[in-house]
Amino acid sequence: MSIQQQATPATLKVGVVGIGWAGQQHLKAYSRIEGVEIVAVAGMEDELLAQMKQEYGIPHAFARWEDMIGLEGLDAISVAVPTFLHAPISTAALERGLHVLSEKPLARNGEEGRAMVEAARKAGRVLDVAFNHRRRGDIQKLKAIIDDGRLGRPYYAKGS
Ligand SMILES: NC(=O)c1ccc[n+]([C@@H]2O[C@H](COP(=O)([O-])OP(=O)(O)OC[C@H]3O[C@@H](n4cnc5c(N)ncnc54)[C@H](O)[C@@H]3O)[C@@H](O)[C@H]2O)c1
What we know:
Rossmann fold, single chain, alpha/beta
């Protein structure tokens, strides 16, 4: 197959649970990524939910996350709700075969976090956490400098 004939990459169909500040960042970012289609959104604020649905042209909106993860054809979800809900929503989604991008912190404690990781391994799906600062160019540069041993072993860090 020549380069010109290559098939269009498959579209990743995503859903976002939570429409607060964090959820809106996920919606904005997904809407700008080629090959990603936002097919569902869930949140408990009726007016805002309708607004997000319209703004991003999202076909399905749900008040309950339980209904959203049952949507046929969904590939992955973002979990952008209060932290006590990260584990139950992520685990249920992974068990349904969905990939999950959870907001940080991963969970409330190690026990919940480990259960989420275990669910991802069992399902053979991706569980990632939105440690967004780690993806920043300046932070990655600093990490590379540390990994190269050029700073020695950091024992104290202060950020602002
Ligand atoms: N990555 C970052 O920089 C960053 C920044 C801020 C917050 N966060 C994280 O993002 C998460 C959300 O924070 P936020 O500030 O957007 O919160 P928020 O309270 O503003 O929004 C939470 C959203 O979750 C929805 N929700 C709650 N329960 C629900 C349910 N049962 N079904 C469906 N929707 C439900 C609410 O309706 C709301 O839309 C938190 O875990 C927080 O730690 C991350």
